[in-house]
Amino acid sequence: MKILHTALAIALAATLAPAAVAHDAGKGHTKVDTVRKATERFHDVRVAREAGYEPAADCVTGPGGGMGIHYTNERLARDPRIDLRRPEVLLYEPHGDQRRLVAVEYFRADADGRLETDDDRPYLFGRGFDGPMEGHEPGMPVHYDLHAWVWKHNPAGTFAQFNPRVSCP
């Protein structure tokens, strides 16, 4: 669905405060390391496309920096389960003809579609997703999302929506 591609490319203007990286208790590594290991193969955009991730047309910037180009896996975005190792969206920063993987985004539609309730807010990394928020374009549901800057340092915080070090041409 092209709607999710474009819709996920448009973000809220608010930026989350810096947050500590969540640790897996007793395992000696971070959950961010788990995500890096699971998404390492997607540094090659062709591999991401083969795995079902399709690009949005636009590179997203906002008041707090940029996000890059969203590549959405529609099948994962429709699945009600959340899997740390299988983010619904991959974010790539354009560099000429190249795309560099910089972050992942987790996406979940709101169960009742109401902005005033949040009893189904998803959690990862020990924090709640942003939302519920209206869809960013016609046909996109009320939803939650969470960005994780696992491949490019974000001085605004690992889970901030925008990264001041990401730009779009």
Tell me what you see in this structure.
Helices cover 16% and strands 31% of the residues. The chain has 169 residues and is an alpha+beta fold. The strands form two sheets. A six-stranded antiparallel beta sheet has the order 1-2-3-4-8-7. Strand 1 and strand 2 (65-73) form a beta hairpin. The radius of gyration is 15 Å and the shape is globular. The model is unreliable at 1-28 (pLDDT under 50).
- What percentage of the residues does DSSP assign to strands (E)? 25-35%
Largest sheet: 6 strands, antiparallel
Low-confidence stretches: 1-28
Global outline:
globular
Layout of strands and helices, then pairs:
Blueprint: H1 2-8, H2 31-39, H3 45-50, E1 53-62, E2 65-73, H4 74-78, E3 89-95, E4 98-109, E5 123-124, E6 127-128, E7 130-133, E8 143-148
Antiparallel strand pairs: 1-2, 2-3, 3-4, 4-8, 5-6, 7-8
Can you tag this structure with a few keywords?
169 residues, alpha+beta, six-stranded antiparallel beta sheet, two-stranded antiparallel ribbon, 16% helix, globular, disordered N terminus
